[in-house]
Design goal:
This protein is of the alpha/beta class. The protein has 2 domains: about 130 residues, Helicase, Ruva Protein, domain 3 (Orthogonal Bundle); about 180 residues, Rossmann fold, CATH 3.40.50.300. The chain has 16 helices and 7 strands. Strands 2-3-4-1-5 form a 5-stranded parallel beta sheet. It has a two-stranded parallel ribbon with strand order 6-7. α1 packs antiparallel against α14 and α14 packs across α16. The radius of gyration is 24 Å and the shape is globular.
Length: about 375
C-alpha cells in the first residue's frame, strides 16, 4: 500500500514537471519572437485557457523545426496582407518608450501617404528616398521598427510585399573574388518588395586589405538601390559613431542615405514595463506584496543593477533576465507538490532575487 502511494506521488511529480517544462519552453519560444510586441489580445487569452491537447497541437503547427510547416511559414512571410494605416499608428503608439523614434516614424508615414495621394491624383511627385540609417545601442528596437516600416510601406502600396530580410556582413561578403557581388545581389533579390535590413553595416568598411571584399558589397548594394528603388528600401543599422563613419566613408552612401533615426537607450522604468508586458503576453504575473514580497521592486533593483554594465543590451537584456527568471521559477515549482495554474503563472520576489544573486556570482 505504501509503495502504491509512493508510485502515485512520483507520477504526480513527473506530470507536474512535464507541464512546467512544456509551458516554459512555449513561453521562451514566444519571447524570442518579439520582446517589444503589443499586449496579448482577448482571443489569445481564450486560447491559453483551452485544454492541453489543443495547446500541444498549436505548438506542433507553429514549429519552425522543419518540414512543410516551416516552408509554408516562409511563404506567408512573403505575402503579408495590407493593413490599415490607422491601426498601424495605434500599434506604434503602443510601443514602450521610443518617443523620439515614434515622432520620426509618424513624419515618414505622413510624408509617404501624401506622396502616394499626389501620385494617385496625377500630380508630379519628387523622388522619395526611403532608405534610412538607424543608430543606437543593441536592443533599442531598431529591427522592430525596420519590420514595422516594411509593413507601413507595403500597406501604402509603395512596397509590393512588405517583408524584412535581415543580414550582416557575413550575409553579403564572400571569401573569393567575384563571389561577394553574387552573394550581395542574392540578398537584395530576396529583399525585393520589402526592406533589406543590414545590421552592423559599418563592418563592411572595416577591412582594408586587398583580400577584403566589403567594398565590393557596398558597390553592388549602391547599384541595386538605384536600379530597384521603386520596390526596395535599405536600412543600415549599428552603433551611432561607427554608423556616422560608415556613411561618410563613401560618397555613394552619403547621397543615398539622407534620413537618420537615433534610438536612445531605454530607461529603467521602460525596461520594467517591457518585462511586465512580456509577463502579460505569456500569462505570467508578478507577485504583489510589501517589502521582501514585492516582486516588482526586486525586478527594478535587478534591472537597474544589470543595466550599469555597458553590454547589458536594453530590451535584449530584459529578455535574457526574463528567461533566467523562468528557469528559477521552474526550479522552485519542480520541488512543489500540487502545482496549480496560478502557481504556474506567478513569478515571486524570491525567484527574481535568486536569479539576481546567481547572475552576480557568475559575473
Amino acid at each position: 500500500m505504501a509503495n502504491n502511494s509512493i508510485d502515485k506521488k512520483d507520477q504526480i511529480i513527473l506530470q507536474q514537471l512535464d507541464v512546467i517544462r512544456q509551458m516554459t519552453e512555449r513561453n521562451l519560444r514566444s519571447v524570442g519572437l518579439d520582446i517589444w510586441g503589443t499586449p496579448a489580445t482577448k482571443k489569445a487569452e481564450e486560447k491559453a485557457t483551452s485544454d492541453g491537447k489543443s495547446q500541444g497541437q498549436q505548438e506542433n503547427n507553429t514549429s519552425t523545426g522543419g518540414g512543410k510547416t516551416s516552408t509554408d511559414a516562409a511563404k506567408q512571410a512573403q505575402e503579408l496582407p495590407k493593413e490599415s494605416i490607422e491601426d498601424l499608428k495605434k500599434e506604434l503608439d503602443s510601443y514602450i518608450g521610443l518617443e523620439e523614434v515614434k515622432d520620426e516614424v509618424r513624419d515618414l508615414i505622413n510624408m509617404a501617404t501624401v506622396w502616394k495621394l499626389r501620385r494617385e491624383h496625377g500630380l508630379p511627385t519628387p523622388d522619395l528616398s526611403l532608405h534610412m540609417v538607424f543608430s543606437g545601442n543593441p536592443g533599442t528596437g531598431k529591427t522592430m521598427i525596420a519590420r514595422f516600416m516594411a509593413r507601413v510601406y507595403h500597406s501604402l502600396g509603395i512596397l509590393s510585399k512588405g517583408h524584412l530580410v535581415e543580414v550582416d556582413r557575413s550575409g553579403l561578403v564572400a571569401g573569393y573574388v567575384g563571389q561577394t557581388a553574387i552573394k550581395t545581389a542574392a540578398a537584395v533579390e530576396r529583399a525585393k518588395g520589402g526592406v533589406l535590413f543590414i545590421d552592423e553595416a559599418y563592418a563592411l568598411t572595416f577591412g582594408k586589405s586587398e583580400n577584403d571584399f566589403g567594398g565590393e558589397a557596398i558597390e553592388t548594394l549602391l547599384k541595386a538601390m538605384e536600379d530597384k528603388r521603386d520596390d526596395l528600401v535599405v536600412i543600415v543599422a549599428g552603433y551611432t559613431e561607427l554608423m556616422d563613419e560608415f556613411i561618410h566613408s563613401n560618397p555613394g552612401l552619403e547621397s543615398r542615405f539622407n534620413r537618420f533615426i537615433y534610438f536612445r537607450d531605454y530607461t529603467i522604468d521602460e525596461m520594467v514595463a517591457i518585462f511586465e508586458l512580456q509577463c502579460k503576453k505569456n500569462f505570467y504575473t508578478l507577485e504583489e506584496g510589501e517589502g521582501d514580497n514585492d516582486a516588482k521592486a526586486a525586478l527594478r533593483e535587478f534591472i537597474a543593477d544589470e543595466s550599469r554594465d555597458e553590454t547589458f543590451g536594453n530590451a535584449r537584456g530584459v529578455r535574457n533576465i526574463f528567461e533566467r527568471i523562468l528557469v528559477e521559477q521552474a526550479n522552485r515549482l519542480a520541488a512543489t507538490e500540487n502545482v496549480s495554474r496560478d502557481d504556474l503563472m506567478k513569478i515571486t520576489a524570491d525567484d527574481i532575487r535568486r536569479t539576481h544573486k546567481g547572475q552576480k556570482e557568475n559575473s
